[in-house]
Design brief:
The chain is mainly α. The protein contains 11 helices and 4 strands. The N and C termini lie far apart (52 Å).
Protein backbone atom coordinates (compact mmCIF):
# COMPACT_ATOMS: atom_id res chain seq x y z
CA UNK A 1 0.00 0.00 0.00
CA UNK A 2 1.07 3.61 -0.63
CA UNK A 3 1.36 4.42 3.08
CA UNK A 4 4.36 2.10 3.39
CA UNK A 5 6.61 4.37 1.33
CA UNK A 6 5.02 7.84 1.05
CA UNK A 7 6.55 10.62 3.17
CA UNK A 8 5.41 10.19 6.80
CA UNK A 9 4.35 13.82 7.24
CA UNK A 10 2.07 13.58 4.21
CA UNK A 11 0.57 10.34 5.52
CA UNK A 12 0.04 11.88 8.95
CA UNK A 13 -1.85 14.88 7.52
CA UNK A 14 -4.14 12.68 5.41
CA UNK A 15 -4.81 10.42 8.40
CA UNK A 16 -5.72 13.51 10.42
CA UNK A 17 -8.37 14.62 7.89
CA UNK A 18 -9.74 11.08 7.76
CA UNK A 19 -10.01 10.83 11.53
CA UNK A 20 -11.57 14.29 11.96
CA UNK A 21 -14.32 13.69 9.40
CA UNK A 22 -14.80 9.91 9.62
CA UNK A 23 -18.32 10.13 11.04
CA UNK A 24 -19.80 11.71 7.90
CA UNK A 25 -17.26 12.48 5.12
CA UNK A 26 -16.38 8.92 4.24
CA UNK A 27 -16.44 6.44 1.39
CA UNK A 28 -17.13 3.56 3.77
CA UNK A 29 -18.19 3.81 7.37
CA UNK A 30 -15.51 2.32 9.62
CA UNK A 31 -14.26 1.86 13.14
CA UNK A 32 -10.74 1.35 14.47
CA UNK A 33 -10.91 -2.39 13.98
CA UNK A 34 -11.69 -2.12 10.25
CA UNK A 35 -8.30 -1.49 8.70
CA UNK A 36 -9.33 -1.99 5.05
CA UNK A 37 -12.21 0.52 5.11
CA UNK A 38 -10.04 3.09 6.90
CA UNK A 39 -7.41 2.70 4.20
CA UNK A 40 -10.01 3.25 1.46
CA UNK A 41 -11.09 6.50 3.11
CA UNK A 42 -7.49 7.65 3.44
CA UNK A 43 -6.84 6.80 -0.21
CA UNK A 44 -9.89 8.85 -1.23
CA UNK A 45 -8.65 11.92 0.65
CA UNK A 46 -5.16 11.43 -0.77
CA UNK A 47 -6.71 11.36 -4.25
CA UNK A 48 -8.59 14.61 -3.62
CA UNK A 49 -5.30 16.17 -2.46
CA UNK A 50 -3.69 14.85 -5.66
CA UNK A 51 -6.42 16.62 -7.67
CA UNK A 52 -5.64 19.86 -5.81
CA UNK A 53 -1.95 19.44 -6.51
CA UNK A 54 -2.40 18.75 -10.22
CA UNK A 55 -4.71 21.74 -10.53
CA UNK A 56 -2.27 23.99 -8.66
CA UNK A 57 0.69 23.11 -10.89
CA UNK A 58 -1.43 23.67 -13.99
CA UNK A 59 -1.25 20.10 -15.23
CA UNK A 60 -1.74 19.83 -18.99
CA UNK A 61 -2.94 16.24 -18.71
CA UNK A 62 -6.49 15.39 -17.65
CA UNK A 63 -6.25 14.11 -14.09
CA UNK A 64 -10.04 13.87 -13.73
CA UNK A 65 -12.01 12.62 -16.73
CA UNK A 66 -15.79 12.87 -17.24
CA UNK A 67 -17.26 10.70 -19.95
CA UNK A 68 -20.50 8.96 -20.99
CA UNK A 69 -20.45 5.16 -20.76
CA UNK A 70 -23.01 2.37 -20.36
CA UNK A 71 -25.98 4.75 -20.55
CA UNK A 72 -24.76 6.95 -17.72
CA UNK A 73 -22.15 9.58 -16.92
CA UNK A 74 -18.91 8.52 -15.29
CA UNK A 75 -15.95 10.18 -13.58
CA UNK A 76 -12.54 8.58 -13.25
CA UNK A 77 -8.91 9.40 -12.52
CA UNK A 78 -7.11 10.24 -15.75
CA UNK A 79 -4.09 8.05 -15.02
CA UNK A 80 -3.92 6.06 -11.78
CA UNK A 81 -0.20 5.45 -12.21
CA UNK A 82 0.33 9.22 -12.10
CA UNK A 83 -0.79 9.28 -8.46
CA UNK A 84 2.06 6.92 -7.61
CA UNK A 85 4.43 9.09 -9.66
CA UNK A 86 3.33 12.29 -7.88
CA UNK A 87 3.51 10.72 -4.41
CA UNK A 88 7.02 9.49 -5.20
CA UNK A 89 8.05 12.98 -6.34
CA UNK A 90 6.64 14.78 -3.31
CA UNK A 91 8.26 12.23 -0.99
CA UNK A 92 11.73 12.93 -2.40
CA UNK A 93 11.60 16.62 -3.37
CA UNK A 94 11.27 19.07 -0.45
CA UNK A 95 9.73 21.94 -2.46
CA UNK A 96 7.16 19.66 -4.07
CA UNK A 97 6.42 18.15 -0.68
CA UNK A 98 5.67 21.63 0.72
CA UNK A 99 3.34 22.28 -2.20
CA UNK A 100 1.54 18.96 -1.70
CA UNK A 101 1.11 19.64 2.03
CA UNK A 102 -0.48 22.97 1.09
CA UNK A 103 -2.90 21.13 -1.17
CA UNK A 104 -3.79 18.74 1.64
CA UNK A 105 -4.91 21.88 3.50
CA UNK A 106 -7.12 22.62 0.49
CA UNK A 107 -8.72 19.22 1.05
CA UNK A 108 -9.38 20.25 4.65
CA UNK A 109 -10.98 23.41 3.23
CA UNK A 110 -13.13 21.30 0.90
CA UNK A 111 -14.46 19.28 3.84
CA UNK A 112 -15.14 22.53 5.73
CA UNK A 113 -17.04 24.03 2.79
CA UNK A 114 -19.12 20.88 2.42
CA UNK A 115 -19.94 20.89 6.11
CA UNK A 116 -21.05 24.52 5.82
CA UNK A 117 -23.61 24.10 3.04
CA UNK A 118 -24.80 20.71 4.32
CA UNK A 119 -25.64 22.27 7.69
CA UNK A 120 -29.12 23.65 7.02
CA UNK A 121 -30.44 23.53 10.59
CA UNK A 122 -29.21 24.26 14.10
CA UNK A 123 -27.64 21.11 15.51
CA UNK A 124 -25.94 20.42 18.84
CA UNK A 125 -22.63 18.57 18.77
CA UNK A 126 -24.13 15.16 19.51
CA UNK A 127 -26.49 15.46 16.51
CA UNK A 128 -24.08 17.01 14.02
CA UNK A 129 -22.27 14.03 12.47
CA UNK A 130 -25.39 11.95 11.84
CA UNK A 131 -27.13 15.00 10.37
CA UNK A 132 -24.24 15.76 8.00
CA UNK A 133 -24.10 12.08 7.00
CA UNK A 134 -27.82 12.05 6.10
CA UNK A 135 -27.55 15.26 4.12
CA UNK A 136 -24.50 14.07 2.20
CA UNK A 137 -26.34 10.85 1.29
CA UNK A 138 -29.34 13.00 0.25
CA UNK A 139 -26.97 14.96 -1.99
CA UNK A 140 -25.29 11.91 -3.54
CA UNK A 141 -28.55 9.97 -3.97
CA UNK A 142 -30.98 12.56 -5.39
CA UNK A 143 -33.39 9.92 -6.76
CA UNK A 144 -33.63 8.10 -3.42
CA UNK A 145 -32.58 4.79 -4.94
CA UNK A 146 -32.60 1.74 -2.68
CA UNK A 147 -29.35 0.00 -1.71
CA UNK A 148 -27.47 3.24 -2.37
CA UNK A 149 -23.76 3.20 -1.56
CA UNK A 150 -21.34 6.08 -1.85
CA UNK A 151 -18.75 5.82 -4.60
CA UNK A 152 -15.45 7.50 -5.39
CA UNK A 153 -17.19 9.13 -8.33
CA UNK A 154 -19.52 10.97 -5.94
CA UNK A 155 -16.55 12.58 -4.24
CA UNK A 156 -14.78 13.32 -7.52
CA UNK A 157 -17.84 15.26 -8.70
CA UNK A 158 -18.18 16.98 -5.33
CA UNK A 159 -14.53 18.08 -5.59
CA UNK A 160 -15.06 19.30 -9.15
CA UNK A 161 -18.05 21.40 -8.11
CA UNK A 162 -16.94 22.85 -4.79
CA UNK A 163 -13.14 23.22 -4.90
CA UNK A 164 -13.14 26.40 -7.08
CA UNK A 165 -15.61 28.25 -4.82
CA UNK A 166 -14.19 30.32 -1.97
CA UNK A 167 -15.34 29.73 1.60
CA UNK A 168 -16.96 33.16 2.04
CA UNK A 169 -19.11 32.52 -1.05
CA UNK A 170 -20.16 29.14 0.37
CA UNK A 171 -21.13 30.73 3.72
CA UNK A 172 -23.08 33.52 2.04
CA UNK A 173 -24.99 31.34 -0.44
CA UNK A 174 -25.12 28.03 1.46
CA UNK A 175 -28.90 27.62 1.05
CA UNK A 176 -28.69 28.04 -2.72
CA UNK A 177 -25.51 26.00 -3.19
CA UNK A 178 -26.90 22.81 -1.62
CA UNK A 179 -29.89 22.87 -3.99
CA UNK A 180 -27.73 23.64 -7.02
CA UNK A 181 -25.29 20.85 -6.15
CA UNK A 182 -28.10 18.34 -5.68
CA UNK A 183 -29.57 19.28 -9.04
CA UNK A 184 -26.17 18.72 -10.62
CA UNK A 185 -25.99 15.29 -9.00
CA UNK A 186 -29.39 14.56 -10.53
CA UNK A 187 -27.88 15.26 -13.94
CA UNK A 188 -24.86 13.12 -13.13
CA UNK A 189 -26.86 10.19 -11.76
CA UNK A 190 -29.51 10.18 -14.49
CA UNK A 191 -29.43 7.32 -16.98
CA UNK A 192 -30.24 7.55 -20.68
CA UNK A 193 -29.75 5.71 -23.98
CA UNK A 194 -27.45 5.98 -26.99
CA UNK A 195 -27.35 9.52 -28.42
CA UNK A 196 -29.26 10.88 -25.43
CA UNK A 197 -26.37 10.17 -23.05
CA UNK A 198 -24.06 12.27 -25.24
CA UNK A 199 -26.51 15.16 -24.94
CA UNK A 200 -26.73 14.55 -21.19
CA UNK A 201 -22.94 14.76 -20.97
CA UNK A 202 -22.86 18.06 -22.85
CA UNK A 203 -25.69 19.41 -20.69
CA UNK A 204 -23.84 18.37 -17.52
CA UNK A 205 -20.61 20.12 -18.59
CA UNK A 206 -22.57 23.25 -19.48
CA UNK A 207 -24.37 23.16 -16.11
CA UNK A 208 -21.06 22.84 -14.22
CA UNK A 209 -19.67 25.89 -16.04
CA UNK A 210 -22.82 27.89 -15.26
CA UNK A 211 -22.61 26.85 -11.60
CA UNK A 212 -19.01 28.05 -11.34
CA UNK A 213 -19.81 31.34 -13.05
CA UNK A 214 -22.73 31.89 -10.67
CA UNK A 215 -20.45 31.56 -7.63
CA UNK A 216 -17.26 33.02 -9.11
CA UNK A 217 -15.33 35.92 -7.60
CA UNK A 218 -14.62 38.98 -9.72
CA UNK A 219 -10.99 40.06 -10.02
CA UNK A 220 -9.80 43.50 -8.97
CA UNK A 221 -9.17 45.55 -12.09
CA UNK A 222 -10.29 49.11 -11.32
CA UNK A 223 -7.72 51.71 -10.26
CA UNK A 224 -9.23 55.06 -9.30
CA UNK A 225 -7.43 58.21 -10.39
CA UNK A 226 -6.71 61.03 -7.94
CA UNK A 227 -9.59 62.98 -9.46
CA UNK A 228 -11.98 60.05 -9.03
CA UNK A 229 -10.90 59.64 -5.40
CA UNK A 230 -11.56 63.34 -4.70
CA UNK A 231 -14.99 63.14 -6.31
CA UNK A 232 -15.91 59.93 -4.46
CA UNK A 233 -14.83 61.17 -1.03
CA UNK A 234 -16.83 64.35 -1.60
CA UNK A 235 -19.87 62.30 -2.67
CA UNK A 236 -19.58 60.36 0.61
CA UNK A 237 -19.67 63.64 2.53
CA UNK A 238 -16.15 62.98 3.84
CA UNK A 239 -17.51 60.14 5.99
CA UNK A 240 -16.12 56.61 6.29
CA UNK A 241 -19.12 54.32 5.54
CA UNK A 242 -17.81 51.63 7.88
CA UNK A 243 -17.13 53.60 11.07
CA UNK A 244 -19.10 56.78 10.45
CA UNK A 245 -15.96 58.78 11.35
CA UNK A 246 -14.69 61.80 9.41
CA UNK A 247 -12.67 60.86 6.34
CA UNK A 248 -10.07 63.30 5.01
CA UNK A 249 -7.80 63.36 2.01
CA UNK A 250 -4.42 62.56 3.52
CA UNK A 251 -5.81 59.85 5.84
CA UNK A 252 -4.75 56.25 5.26
CA UNK A 253 -7.54 55.44 2.82
CA UNK A 254 -8.42 52.27 0.92
CA UNK A 255 -10.88 51.53 -1.83
CA UNK A 256 -13.44 49.04 -0.54
CA UNK A 257 -16.23 47.06 -2.19
CA UNK A 258 -19.63 47.67 -0.59
CA UNK A 259 -20.57 44.10 -1.47
CA UNK A 260 -17.26 42.23 -1.16
CA UNK A 261 -15.95 40.32 -4.17
CA UNK A 262 -15.63 37.25 -1.95
CA UNK A 263 -19.43 37.04 -1.61
CA UNK A 264 -20.36 37.86 -5.19
CA UNK A 265 -19.88 41.63 -5.30
CA UNK A 266 -19.02 43.06 -8.71
CA UNK A 267 -15.87 44.88 -9.77
CA UNK A 268 -17.60 48.08 -10.90
CA UNK A 269 -17.34 51.69 -9.77
CA UNK A 270 -20.87 51.75 -8.36
CA UNK A 271 -19.75 49.08 -5.84
CA UNK A 272 -16.74 51.08 -4.60
CA UNK A 273 -16.40 53.26 -1.52
CA UNK A 274 -13.52 54.94 0.29
CA UNK A 275 -12.84 53.89 3.87
CA UNK A 276 -10.19 54.16 6.57
CA UNK A 277 -7.56 51.47 6.10
CA UNK A 278 -7.91 50.04 9.62
CA UNK A 279 -11.69 49.79 9.31
CA UNK A 280 -11.35 47.99 6.00
CA UNK A 281 -9.09 45.38 7.61
CA UNK A 282 -11.73 44.70 10.25
CA UNK A 283 -14.60 44.57 7.76
CA UNK A 284 -13.09 41.83 5.56
CA UNK A 285 -15.95 40.02 3.77
CA UNK A 286 -18.82 41.75 5.58
CA UNK A 287 -21.39 43.79 3.69
CA UNK A 288 -21.60 47.38 4.94
Amino acid sequence: MWNSWVDKEIIAEVKKITENSKEWFFLKSWDKSNYRDRMENEELLMTLSYFNYKKQIGSKTSFLVLHPRDNRLNARIGNKKDITHVLTEVSTDLEKKKMFLTQIKETVSLVKKCKTFLLQENKVKSELSSYLKRNLDWLFNPFGRKNFRRTRQDYYILWLLISPINFEMVKHFRDDIIIDVRNLFKKFRATSHDVEIINAYEDFIRAINEFHIKYSQDKRTIVLSDKEIRLLIKKQGYICPISGARLRLGDEIEVDHRIPLAVGGKEKKSNLQLVHKDNNRKKRASII
